[in-house]
Amino acid sequence: MNKPPHRRLRDRRGEAPTVIGPGVIFRGDIIAPGSVLVSGHVRGDGDIGGTLAISRNSHWEGHVKAGEAIIAGALTGGIEVTGQLEVGAAAVIKGNVIAQTLAIARGAVIEGEIQVTSGAAVVQFEEKRSAD
Questions:
Q1: Does residue 47 sit within a domain?
Q2: For the ranges 1-15, 55-69, 76-90, 105-119, which has the lowest average pLDDT?
Q3: Which of 13, 21, 66, 84 has the most crowded CB, counting CB atoms within 10 A?
Q4: Range 8-17 average pLDDT
Q5: Statement: the pTM of the whole predicted model exceeds 0.90
Q6: Under a CB-based contact definition with an 8 Å cutoff, are residues 71 and 93 in contact?
Q7: Is the dihedral of CA 118, 124, 127, 131 positive or negative?
Q8: Which residues have CB under 8 Å from 64's CB, separation 6+?
Q9: How many domains does the chain have?
């Protein structure tokens, strides 16, 4: 049985993520071996072994390390990703960004230094699907 190719990073998430739901305010550091989906508000640092997804209208305040990340909401404090980072059109990142590879949708805002560790060019794209 052939599976269709994964066109976007968000299509590749396999395991069930830890979820911070809409309206939830979480204060404290998060250490998660797998993926984390934030649809609320987090205040604290993060060490995410899998994929971090920050939905639109969500906010993370603190420094985050992750395997991969999809940012569609707000992040204040910086992010370090060992794999791919995808930044959606409505995203606002205030802090330094370090990623192996980086794709940024037109309209996204990054206020800080950007470092791509692989040396690859930053990919810009038009977001055509919902980032939620």
A1: yes
A2: 1-15
A3: 66
A4: 59
A5: no
A6: yes
A7: positive
A8: 45, 46, 47, 48, 52, 75, 77, 78, 79, 80
A9: 1
